[in-house]
């Protein structure tokens, strides 16, 4: 999971100078007859007469994703014989450290596939170029573009999306809870013997907790991003909710548990609810419990919220072939290409209009995410975000394990986060 590598290299960005600017321009493409815009079609026609170039696409694809992109690249290169795409797959935990080193040395790929917080950081650091007419912001969920926009221009686009949702057993929970109070009541009613109501876990650090923090009305950082503020009364109420559920509604040991510790319980029917993202849809379809499970938005506190995941595409300023790189990104984001990509891999669409396409509309599990994504928020993107995330995750674990009260755990975590933010 990409969420597990979030903290690996964020702090590296703080020490790096902004890159020297190279000239850039807007451009797009029409590929297999389904162009993103008239401007993109014009750009493709211009590109057809250009000298052949090779662009590098650096990513962290899984085996399945790698096979799919390689199959689809044949169509791109047939439509754009002047552009060859070299795939560079790097699944090492040091991926982001190495990418930052490349960029700050004046090198790096033409196109990079990175997590949303990374994309926001690289854009803020001046390491990317605007995509111009290669993509249209109107086609995407606004919340997924917040960290990809700089000075009113779009510098990145989501290739894949994820967000946390409530998975629930319809044979145990006929109607999913929509509020925190309903959640506590439902979870307690399902808890007896070796059966439990819900699983909320701390083994992924703060990732699982962000939605509940935001739902309470709390913020992670001050408006200017310089101070941690997640020990407010609202934030404490969110962590107290988790502690209350651990006492009356969840299996023991949720402080260090992960999603893998809960899936088997859910499939067997000894767990009524757990939170996960679209990456779990296919495994649930394969589990032999059709008709016994569904997906809903997370129960809301003061307001609805969930955490945004997925992977974004950016064109780096160091690229010597920026227009060709934009042409490639524009092609990747065409409706037909996205339908083939998401459909083959069991992903949810990144474009809002595709949820009305029969390919996805007729799948109740995929279509459920359309409403969920509208309330998705990105994690902090400041240079010290990794330290902030780690501190918050430790607070969640301390409170769930009973090592500290929610207030004490969050107070200690804020102090630790602020120390990192001050450097």
Rg (CA only) = 22 Å
Strand content: 5-15%
| Terminal CA distance | 29 Å
Q: Give the H and E element order.
A: HEHEHEHEEEEHEHHHEHEEHHHHHEHH
CATH level 4 superfamily of the largest domain: Periplasmic binding protein-like II
CATH architecture of the largest domain: 3-Layer(aba) Sandwich
Give keywords.
alpha/beta; D-Maltodextrin-Binding Protein, domain 2; six-stranded mixed sheet; single chain; 2 domains; globular; 12 strands; 423 residues
Notes on the protein architecture:
- This protein has helices spanning 38-48, 63-79, 95-104, 116-124, 180-190, 210-215, 233-247, 260-268, 281-285, 322-332, 335-345, 358-361, 364-367, 369-373, 385-401, 406-421; strands at residues 53-59, 83-89, 111-114, 149-150, 153-154, 156-163, 165-169, 196-199, 271-276, 293-296, 306-315, 376-377.
- The chain has 423 residues and is α/β, with parallel strands linked by helices.
- The chain contains 16 helices and twelve strands.
- The protein starts with 37 loop residues before the first helix and ends with a helix.
- The model is unreliable at 1-49 (pLDDT under 50).
- The protein folds into two domains: 2-162 and 309-377, Periplasmic binding protein-like II (D-Maltodextrin-Binding Protein, domain 2, 3-Layer(aba) Sandwich), CATH 3.40.190.10; 165-297 and 384-421, Periplasmic binding protein-like II (D-Maltodextrin-Binding Protein, domain 2), CATH 3.40.190.
- The strands form three sheets. Strands 1, 2, 3, 6, 11 and 12 form a six-stranded mixed β-sheet that branches.
């Amino acid at each position: 999971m990409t969420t597990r590598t979030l903290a690996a290299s964020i702090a590296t960005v703080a020490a790096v100078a902004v890159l020297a600017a190279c000239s850039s321009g807007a451009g797009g493409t029409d590929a297999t007859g389904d162009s993103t815009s008239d401007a993109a079609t014009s750009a493709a026609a211009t590109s057809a007469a250009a000298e052949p170039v090779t662009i590098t696409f650096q990513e962290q694809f899984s085996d399945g994703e790698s096979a799919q992109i390689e199959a689809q690249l044949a169509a791109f290169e047939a439509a754009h014989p002047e552009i060859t795409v070299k795939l560079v797959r790097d699944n090492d935990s040091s991926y982001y450290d190495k990418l930052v080193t490349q960029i700050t040395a004046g090198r790096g790929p033409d196109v990079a596939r990175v997590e949303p917080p990374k994309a926001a950081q690289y854009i803020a650091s001046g390491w990317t170029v605007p995509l111009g007419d290669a993509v249209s912001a109107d086609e995407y969920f606004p919340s997924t573009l917040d960290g990809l926009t700089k000075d009113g221009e779009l510098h990145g686009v989501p290739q894949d999306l994820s967000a946390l949702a409530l998975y629930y057993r319809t044979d145990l929970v006929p109607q999913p809870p929509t509020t925190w109070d309903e959640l506590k009541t439902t979870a307690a009613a399902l808890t007896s013997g070796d059966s439990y109501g819900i699983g909320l876990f701390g083994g992924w650090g703060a990732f699982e907790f962000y939605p509940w923090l935001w739902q309470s009305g709390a913020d992670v950082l001050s408006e200017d991003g310089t101070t941690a503020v997640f020990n407010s009364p609202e934030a404490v109420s969110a962590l107290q909710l988790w502690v209350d559920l651990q006492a009356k509604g969840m299996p023991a040991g949720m402080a260090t548990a992960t999603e893998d510790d809960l899936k088997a319980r859910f499939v067997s029917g000894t767990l009524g609810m757990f939170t996960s993202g679209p990456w779990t849809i296919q495994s649930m379809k394969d589990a032999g419990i059709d008709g016994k499970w569904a997906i809903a938005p997370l129960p809301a506190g003061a307001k609805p919220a969930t955490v945004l995941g997925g992977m974004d595409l950016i064109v780096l300023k160091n690229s010597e072939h920026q227009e060709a790189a934009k042409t490639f990104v524009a092609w990747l984001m065409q409706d037909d290409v996205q339908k083939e990509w998401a459909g083959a891999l069991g992903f949810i669409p990144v474009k809002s209009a595709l949820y009305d396409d029969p390919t996805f509309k007729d799948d109740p599990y995929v279509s459920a995410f359309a409403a969920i994504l509208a309330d998705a928020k990105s994690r902090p993107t400041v240079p010290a975000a990794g330290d902030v995330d780690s501190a918050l995750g430790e607070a969640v674990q301390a409170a769930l394990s009973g090592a500290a009260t929610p207030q004490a755990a969050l107070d200690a975590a804020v102090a630790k986060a602020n120390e990192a933010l001050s450097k």
